[in-house]
Amino acid sequence: MPDRCPAPPAVIAVQPEVSRHHLTVHGQPMSYLEAGRQSDGPVVVLVHGLGSNAATWLDLMALLGPHVHVVAPDLLGHGQSGAPRRGDYSVGGHASRLRDLLRAMGLARASVVGHSFGGGVAMSFAYQFPERADSLVLISSGGLGPELSIALRAACLPGVALTAQSLTTLAPGWIVHLARYGAMRMGWAPPIELVRLGRILRSLTDPDARRVFLHTLRGAVSWSGQRLDATDLLYLLAELPTLLIAGRRDRCIPHRHTLLAHQALPGSRLAVLEAGHFPHSEHPEQVAELILDLLAASSAAAAATVVVQAAAPAPHGADRAAS
């Protein structure tokens, strides 16, 4: 059972209405951003992708915070959370640690939103702990098909991540800007994706971060594409309110994967935005509205179910038995 820190968690102001906290889970520091604790709304957990951290959700958290209680953890090995050499960085391991973080916070249930690799973690959380999942949102999610950008497939090869990071660090600024400009003009990726990629590469300066990145990447990706395929388990989500969001211009994971997942989940909601791999960064207002609509519909459906159950007639003979 994870223990809270003996002292009150440190709080670091990140931006208005968003704060940073720290807990110890299974002996490792876990850091998370939080907003909307006083909103009296449902709990929403935001799970970032590989090589990223909770800060990727800042814009979305500012929009959701007035309505719901939002928690965005740094996954193990990312951001300000611990990076143990023998840590479990598998999708299932991250999902289990997410459950334990919520338990340490005294939160019984949550709606889980996952982006890219975090989508796989969110799905795994819903599969493993259905009693804790209220709804599921997958944004440009991994695990829904084998195809993957050549950049990510190449990154799993020996020495590539270190070489790319070194070039980004050592190259003169004008070369980096020129390469970014050329990539945008060629249509290889929208600006926000290049900015995010640059941040990931800069984070790999730290040896521990690079080790975790490569360990996690090689567990999920090979040169031929994604190793993990959750499509055969989608039927387990049939009763869970689910929203699928994809960017039509995603150059990392084809948005077709999300379309196929929607077909496999007839009750799911689908939104394809004019965005790249980071719809929540390009269109945070639109993504926030989609999430809040899902939560409102789920809450209304749950309330209607309770009313119907309460109004159901007692089984024949029940009154006689009671007397």
Key phrases:
disordered C terminus, alpha/beta, two-stranded antiparallel sheet, Rossmann fold, single chain, 323 residues, 42% helix, disordered N terminus
Overview of this protein structure:
The chain has helices at residues 58-64, 91-104, 117-128, 150-155, 160-170, 173-185, 191-203, 207-220, 256-264, 279-282, 284-311, 318-322; strands spanning 12-15, 18-25, 28-35, 43-47, 69-73, 110-115, 133-139, 221-222, 225-226, 242-247, 269-273. It is an alpha/beta fold and 323 residues long. It has a domain at 12-148 and 227-299: Alpha/Beta hydrolase fold, catalytic domain (Rossmann fold, 3-Layer(aba) Sandwich), CATH 3.40.50.1820. The strands form 2 sheets. It has a 9-stranded mixed beta sheet with strand order 1-2-3-5-4-6-7-10-11, with helices on both faces. The protein has a two-stranded antiparallel sheet with strand order 8-9. Helix 1 packs across helix 11 (284-311) and helix 2 crosses helix 3. The chain is globular and about 45 Å long. Mean pLDDT is 77; it is low at 1-14, 153-189 and 317-323.
